[in-house]
Write a structure and sequence with these properties.
377 residues; mainly alpha; Serine Threonine Protein Phosphatase 5, Tetratricopeptide repeat; 18 helices; 78% helix; TPR_rpt
Length: 377
């Protein structure tokens, strides 16, 4: 059975909470049952289970109010609400925190980064209600992750360092430390300090090797090593890491295999090695379809229009249109630059200038998104 992301379960718990607040017993019971079924096949997430327990407590209080064991002791709605508050504002604050936290997680999972940040910011106002430092570290990491994707590098670094400082005090949280190294390395790559990025990726690989299992993170770590060397222009070092990532992904079933094939296809296409490029392109498309990865299907369609078909400006632009989203604009920016360089090499300067302009427009869209995400409103 397919594992359900905890963000999806969190959103369903938010729906359950809504029906409780409306005293809609029928729908509350229905959604409660759905939540419990989802939890049985959900990825591991302790924060989600705490949120479930809090809402389950509210559910029982609602039933006690509506259907008391002794009907003569039924209280009015005003007294019921006071009773809830009497359980402590801390409890209400924690429920509000988890409501926004899991809403942010869900928005992030579907690529709505600005909405995710807005939800996380609301959760942050209630973070003082959370006493467990590991839960706080999880929040800091989620903030770091979304700001990294929005290319708000320094903000991302601020949050990921807070998360890492907590996780490194606990030996049992190696996976979380590895994920922190991924985000730190990604930020350093964005700052073009690739030597620092490689240092953190090597630390992540060391931790993974010490665990002696076939974690999907191994493929991601190797892929990130390849990306760092690729961005440095050291293809001789990058290509072997992409192949190692593919090997690790085949063992663990990691979806990163799609990106490894995609990156190899792009490297060969840009070097005018069309036969090799087509080979890796086909493998990347096969994996994107197998994992139902619409983002990489869109990225591969751009490569197809640019390198396999006629390379007409209109066809490339049609393929790029699918990337005009919060999640897609960083890829749009990169591929517009690649298209501009492709047309420069082909001495089609008008097309080259056109795509340089498109790259600048994408950068502006990312910056506008950053400003909106950082707004307190």
């Amino acid at each position: 059975m397919e594992v359900i992301p905890s963000a999806n379960v969190g959103l369903k718990i938010n729906e359950w909470h809504m029906y409780i607040n409306r005293f809609d017993v029928r729908n509350a019971e229905k959604v409660k049952a759905e939540v419990e079924q989802m939890i049985d096949v959900m990825e591991e997430n302790q924060d989600l289970l705490i949120y479930y327990q809090l809402i389950e407590f509210r559910h029982r209080m609602m039933l006690d109010y509506l259907f008391p064991a002794d009907p003569s002791k039924k209280i009015n709605k005003g007294d019921y609400l006071k009773k809830i508050e009497g359980k402590g504002k801390k409890l209400s604050g924690m429920m509000e925190y988890y409501t926004y936290f899991f809403k942010g997680m869900y928005d992030f999972s579907i690529g709505e980064y600005i909405r995710a940040i807005q939800s996380y910011k609301k959760a942050e106002k209630k973070l003082s209600r959370v006493l467990d430092e590991i839960e706080k570290a999880e929040f800091y990491f989620k903030m770091a992750e979304v700001f990294y994707h929005m290319k708000q590098t320094h903000v991302s670094m601020y949050y990921v360092q807070q998360a890492y400082e907590i996780y490194k005090k606990h030996d049992t949280y190696k996976i979380h430390r590895i994920k922190c190294h991924f985000v730190i390395a990604g930020n350093y790559d964005d700052l073009r300090t690739h030597d620092r990025a490689l240092s953190h990726m090597k630390k992540a690989l060391f931790l993974l090797d010490s665990m002696e299992d076939h974690s999907p993170l191994k493929a991601k770590a190797l892929l990130n090593m390849g990306n760092s060397y690729n961005q440095m222009g050291s293809l001789f070092s990058a290509v072997p890491y992409y192949h190692k990532a593919i090997k690790a992904a085949k063992i663990s079933g990691a979806k990163e295999i799609t990106q490894a094939y995609y990156d190899l296809a792009l490297i060969h296409f840009r070097n005018n090695e069309k036969i090799e490029g087509r080979g890796f392109f086909g493998k990347a498309m096969e994996q994107a379809e197998e994992f139902n990865d619409s983002l990489f299907q869109d990225l591969l369609n751009v490569l197809k229009a640019l390198f396999i078909e006629t390379g007409s400006r209109q066809k490339v632009m049609n393929a790029l249109e699918a990337l005009r989203t919060g999640q897609g604009y960083p890829y749009f920016e990169e591929l517009a630059l690649i298209a501009a360089e492709f047309y420069t090499m082909d001495k089609r300067m008008e097309d080259s200038i056109y795509f340089y302009n498109e790259m600048v427009c994408a950068q502006r869209q990312i910056q506008r998104g950053d400003k909106k995400a950082l707004s307190p409103y």
